[in-house]
Amino acid sequence: MLIAFNKPYGVLCQFTDRSQPPRPTLAGFGLPPEVYAAGRLDHDSEGLLLLTDDGGLAHRLTDPRHKQSKTYWVQVEGDPSEAQLRALREGVDLNDGRTRPAQATRIETPTLWPRDPPVRFRKTVPDAWLALTIGEGRNRQVRRMTAAVGLPTLRLVRVAIAEHRLDGLAPGAWREL
Length: 177
Prior knowledge:
- This protein has three helices and eleven strands.
- It is α+β, with helices and mostly antiparallel strands.
- It has two domains: 1-65 and 165-177, Pseudouridine synthase I, catalytic domain, N-terminal subdomain (Alpha-Beta Plaits, 2-Layer Sandwich), CATH 3.30.70.580; 69-161, Alpha-Beta Plaits (2-Layer Sandwich).
- The strands form two sheets. Strands 1, 2, 3, 4, 7, 8, 9, 10 and 11 form a nine-stranded mixed beta sheet that branches. It has a two-stranded antiparallel sheet with strand order 5-6.
- The mean pLDDT is 93.
């Protein structure tokens, strides 16, 4: 079984949380029993999360050797220059090594659901949206990549993993693939 889930902002990619007070988890969304997340999204990221009950499938989806592409729409602070986009396309030096080259393009503001809480708007600081596709999945990689080129991430929404897409799935909703 493979499930596409649109993970809302602030939800943990696990079914339990031992912190006090407890934070929202996947347990609150009526997902089928016996599934678990194939990969992760940080609590402050949104969008496509795949869940499965098949360990082999989970491995194929998450192991970097399989190079499953992941596409994100990233709202960044600043006005991206061609040099910044080129740096993302060529790979960025992070504290844990150089990233693989990414596909990076500036996009029009996508039509998305409102985020709660909303991204803080600042009149004096421009922002822009990028479509960024990577073939690896280090911890907070997209946020670290955009920061490394001088474009801090304001909002991060994963819209695709390989051929699986969010395709209009509302936050907190899921469907079997």
